[in-house]
Design brief:
7-stranded mixed β-sheet; 199 residues; 43% helix; alpha/beta; Rossmann fold; two-stranded antiparallel ribbon
């Protein structure tokens, strides 16, 4: 049984390329996310309220969200999707475990742990979790004109220009998009994702 669940989870997690011209069908995307997340919890066998599970779910959501976003020039990303985790060793370990020998949107995933603002320019996607406003803005200014997708994990990050920000509401993990920042950087976001984000 566990083997079957593991195989089914892997197929769903790998997913398929979304139809960029599809009509808005939020229930389809929600079912996709909910089923993937449920199977992930079953597979991991851990308590949903634990910190580790929250990090694992966010790691899964990153994959789903990225599949609905196009980089300004896909060729710039290359064959690898390099995810940088800035000063959060715990989340780095979670991503490393989950994305070992895995792909996102057909690209091999490489996870890097970052501690220096200069290193942020060398990734496709970067995740921040607990930076001060000053430190966050320092990093964002460094990459403001670069096609680097930014993920945040703290209240208020979206207001500072972070593209995708996770937050918790009524014990559920949700996400919000800074569409102006995404557009300014040249990313194209599938309308389905915009409609599902925080208004």
């Amino acid at each position: 049984m566990l083997s079957g669940v593991r195989q089914l989870f892997c197929r769903i997690s790998e997913g398929s390329t979304p139809d960029w011209n599809m009509k808005f069908k939020p229930y389809v995307f929600l079912k996709y996310i909910i089923l993937s997340s449920t199977l992930f919890i079953i597979f991991c066998g851990s308590n949903i309220v634990s910190q580790s599970t929250e990090s694992e779910l966010k790691a899964v959501f990153i994959e789903k969200i990225v599949s609905y976003i196009k980089w300004p020039n896909e060729s710039d990303v290359g064959e690898e999707l390099v995810i940088g985790v800035y000063k959060n060793a715990d989340f780095y370990r979670v991503l490393t475990r989950i994305y070992k020998n895995r792909e996102i949107s057909g690209k091999r995933v490489v996870i890097k742990y970052l501690t220096d603002v200069e290193d942020v320019s060398n990734v496709s996607l970067v995740h921040f979790s607990d930076l001060s406003k000053t430190e966050l803005l320092e990093v964002l200014i460094k990459i403001i004109d670069k096609p680097i997708l930014t993920f945040g994990d703290k209240k208020g990050y979206s207001e500072y220009g972070v593209h995708v920000n996770f937050y918790t509401k009524n014990d559920f993990i949700r996400f919000e998009l800074n569409t102006e920042s995404l557009k300014r950087t040249g990313f194209y976001v599938n309308p389905v994702l915009i409609d599902l984000s925080k208004k």
